[in-house]
Design a protein that fits this description.
The complex is a heterodimer of chains A (147) and B (141). Chain A is mainly alpha-helical and 147 residues long. Chain A is built from 8 helices and no strands. In chain A, helix 1 crosses helix 8, helix 2 packs across helix 7 and helix 7 packs antiparallel against helix 8. The longest helix of chain A is centred in the C-terminal third of the chain and has 19 residues. The radius of gyration of chain A is 15 Å and the shape is globular. Helices cover 70% and strands 0% of the residues of chain B. In chain B, helix 1 crosses helix 7 and helix 2 packs across helix 6. Chain B is globular. The chains are: A mainly alpha (147), B mainly alpha (141). Chains A and B meet through helix 2, helix 3, helix 7 and helix 8 of A and helix 2, helix 6 and helix 7 of B.
């Protein structure tokens, strides 16, 4: 359960309306793979990840980033029931993908940095606080069905 | 630990911060306290809502220490030894807080540098600041 005030929810939605989900998704996933290279362990089939440039330009990274952020975007519409919204994805990440939930926290943090990069001063401390709560909530929801 | 290219990225970013340690540090601390309120427990002397003067003053101190680290990338342990002693014996900041400060540092960098904040800079600064935090907590036990 994410605890955002009404004001925070509006601010999160208002900023998100300006986000290019495809672009930001690819950038966030790319930056995750470069800044925390061990995360590449899940993407061995993606092709060339040998340099930062190769990662950021990799079409599979962009495509997957778009998919991941699309899911995140859906989650933003259900802030009051993130666990329900991400239940199936949680099971998938545990049973089929075998992803350590720590990675959801890392990606969430990278996403926040990418938003800061795109929005500059507009990404105020208050807005960062709201988004950090959201990404933490999504990370928890994705870890919820692990067993 | 840091390659020549990585050191160049550290220096390149530092050049953009140098001279602005106080406002950069103030924003860093404001973000830290806003996003992670529990970190305020280490700054009781600043009160529940630190004012701008306090944030600028303490922010400058934090960033000046980062500057020392930048100038002694080859020898962080020696250069930061007094600060490591301070954190181990006086401040005793729980080590889990350093990643929170690092996250806020990245957000400040990203929001100010925007288009100039390359993935290489983000990667190197994460590595550098993490190394810094390891040195600062090394004498804890």
């Amino acid at each position: 359960m994410v605890h955002l005030t009404g004001e925070e929810k509006s601010a999160v939605a208002a900023l998100w309306a300006k986000v290019n989900v495809e672009e930001v998704g690819g950038e966030a996933l790319g930056r995750l793979l470069v800044v925390y290279p061990w995360t590449q362990r899940f993407f061995e089939a993606f092709g060339d990840l040998s340099t930062a440039d190769a990662v950021m330009k990799n079409p599979n990274v962009k495509k997957h980033g778009k998919k991941v952020l699309g899911s995140f975007s859906d989650g933003l519409k259900h802030l009051d029931d993130l666990k329900g919204t991400f239940a199936a994805l949680s099971e998938l990440h545990c049973d089929k993908l075998h992803v350590d939930p720590e990675n959801f926290k890392l990606l969430g943090n990278v996403l926040v940095v990418v938003l800061a990069r795109h929005f500059g001063k507009e990404f105020t401390p208050g807005l960062q606080a709201a988004y950090q709560k959201v990404v933490a909530g999504v990370a928890n929801a994705l870890a919820h069905k692990y067993h | 630990m840091l390659s020549a290219q990585e050191r160049a990225h550290v220096a390149q970013v530092w050049d953009l911060i140098a001279g602005h340690e106080a406002p950069f540090g103030a924003e860093l601390l404001l973000r830290l306290f806003t996003v992670y309120p529990s970190t305020k427990t280490y700054f009781k002397h600043l009160g529940d809502r630190p004012d701008e003067v306090q944030l600028l003053s303490h922010g400058q101190r934090v960033l000046e220490a980062v500057g020392v680290a930048v100038r002694h990338m080859d020898n962080l342990r020696a250069a930061l030894s007094p600060l490591a002693d301070l954190h181990a014996h006086v401040l005793r900041v729980d080590p889990t807080n350093f990643p929170l400060l690092i996250q806020c540092f990245q957000v400040v960098l990203a929001s100010h540098l925007q288009g100039e904040f390359t993935v290489e800079m983000q990667a190197v600064w994460d590595k550098f600041l993490t190394a810094l935090s390891v040195v600062l907590t090394e004498k804890y036990r």
